[in-house]
Amino acid sequence: MKLSILLSVLVIAAASAVPRQQRQFPDDFIFGTATASYQIEGAWDEDGKGENIWDYNTHRDPTIIVDQSNGDVAADSYHNYKRDVEMMRELGLDCYRFSLSWPRILPSGFPNHINQAGVDFYNNYIDEMLKYNIQPIVTLYHWDLPQKLQELGGFTNPLFEEWFEDYARVAYSLFGDRVKLWITFNEPKEICYQGYGSVTKMPQVNATGIGEYLCAKHLVMGHGRAYHSYNNDFKPSQGGQCGLTINLQWYMPDTDSEEDAHAVDLMNQATWALYTDPIYSPEGGFPKELSEIVAKKSAEQGYPRSRMLSFTDEERVYVQGTYDFLGLNHYSGNIVSATRYKEPYAVPSIYDDIDVGWTVNESWLKGQAAWNYLVPNSLYNCLTLLRQRYNDPDIYVTESGWSGAPDASLIDEDRVTYYATIMEQMLAAIDEGVKLKGYMAWSLLDNFEWMKGYTERFGLYAVEFSSPERTRTPRLSAFFYKEVLRTRTAVAADYRPEEFTMKIDEGH
Ligand code: GBH
């Protein structure tokens, strides 16, 4: 009798386990979290740091940020970095992705003067991680350009590529003995389109249809130079790798018409391939169709030459293949149409150039941010698409996460649902043969969410922004992620810890 009960329990347990992915992530797969300097550090003018474009603009006109806040103090990680590393240990992270503040190291933007206090801060931060075997992954540029360089045109100045190379060399020589994964830029489209082709990010240049194309070329060239510098002068002794991080929304066609498939292709060209084709595609150069469209429209609009720059043959060859891996940020997706969901786009602008519309499906699970949805299979689809388009590169998911409200419960079930789904999709992509090497959750902790200030929260740890200590408290998602890392499997979304106390496990 007893035996048969036991057996039937075992049978039920086995049966209910079947639909779930029980496979483990590969041994060399690394799990981490990601942050960015301006979003967490604070200490905006401490110890000789120079002003960046966010300092400058949020102080000049606080109303540009929804809640009129800024990153002056943010999560105060400049002073709390030891607590941050303690949280990494609590989670059991293999790696931690963070960005360097260019003007904290080079206050004027140029290497004539290196700010030793800024260098000390990053040295301490990195050493603290390494003490506990947490691998530092560094983004050189996550949106906080030195204001002095913006006054010279920033990414629209053709000399930008040299400024960036000079800065990258300083970073490699200071930290490259310990940092083995380098990301040049975080999300080119968000830098170029949002910063220079619209008003949705600093420096809000709003040169629609022009700024984003100028920026695209100089960013790509800057990346190429930073890569070659590393490859020629640092990699031989330091032995690390260098790549670029892009953000992909998963774009799916509205209908199965050819026109809508084409609209999706144009969205992909305009929002990420513009920046990655020159580096990752075997032919190099900007996407051909987009270049032709912009050249044609520019002529019709009375411009003597295309608003989109091109590469000389020498430049094209120079930047092609300048990568060791591809960084992918992925959050959400859209439905794209050749005819519907269009808004009156500015003329000229990149969206007027491609002339497509997009929307969302309101049945998708929705986060706090207006753009943030859980779209079925979106990460899996992005990974397999990139694998195809770029000949199977090593890929790291360098960000992915879920937005919640500031007053939301610490039992953040939707965020856990999101992460649980993402884990399953990554295992499926690995099964499919994608060379996926790691995953970094955005974010370790709540931080300054750009134009949305502190009104949207992405942290595994909640931060109390009203407390002087910026107290950090783990959410359910932190316990969930810890369990993923402990078991190295796709843990089910209904996981609950035995008790909600965070401890550092042995060996971390
Ligand atoms: C990431 O970008 C950033 O790298 C990170 O710094 C940020 O904190 C995180 O997202 C969360 O937002 O409707 O015009 O406002 C993710 C890609 C692209 C998503 C721009 C939000 C906003 C478009 N982002 N998008 S808009």
Throw out a few tags for this protein.
508 residues, TIM Barrel, two-stranded antiparallel sheet, 13 strands, globular, disordered N terminus
Strand-helix topology:
Blueprint: H1 2-17, E1 30-34, H2 37-40, H3 53-60, H4 77-91, E2 95-99, H5 102-105, H6 116-131, E3 135-141, H7 147-150, H8 160-175, E4 181-186, H9 188-196, H10 211-238, E5 241-253, H11 258-280, H12 288-300, H13 313-319, E6 325-337, H14 350-354, E7 357-359, E8 365-366, E9 373-374, H15 378-389, E10 395-399, H16 413-432, E11 436-442, E12 461-463, E13 472-474, H17 476-487
Parallel strand pairs: 1-2, 1-11, 2-3, 3-4, 4-5, 5-6, 6-10, 10-11
Antiparallel strand pairs: 6-7, 8-9, 12-13
Helix pairs in contact: 4-6, 8-10, 9-10, 10-11, 15-16, 16-17
Ligand GBH binds next to β6.
Describe the structure.
The protein has 508 residues and is an alpha/beta fold. The protein has one domain (4-503): Alpha-Beta Barrel (TIM Barrel). It has helices at 2-17, 37-40, 53-60, 77-91, 102-105, 116-131, 147-150, 160-175, 188-196, 211-238, 258-280, 288-300, 313-319, 350-354, 378-389, 413-432, 476-487, and strands at residues 30-34, 95-99, 135-141, 181-186, 241-253, 325-337, 357-359, 365-366, 373-374, 395-399, 436-442, 461-463, 472-474. Helix 16 links the parallel strand 10 (395-399) and strand 11. Bound molecules: ligand GBH. The site of ligand GBH has 14 residues, from strand 6.
Task: Describe the structure concisely.
This protein has about 500 residues and is of the alpha/beta class.
Main beta-sheet strand count, sense and barrel state: 8 strands, parallel, barrel
State the fourth-level CATH superfamily.
Glycosidases
Bound molecules: ligand GBH
Q: Tell me which oligomeric state these chains represent.
A: single chain
Secondary structure tally: strands? 13
Secondary-structure element pattern, one letter each: HEHHHEHHEHHEHHEHHHEHEEEHEHEEEH
Structural class call reads alpha/beta
How many DSSP helices?
17
Can you tell me the number of structural domains?
1
By CATH reckoning, the class would read Alpha Beta
CATH topology group: TIM Barrel
Just name the CATH architecture. Alpha-Beta Barrel
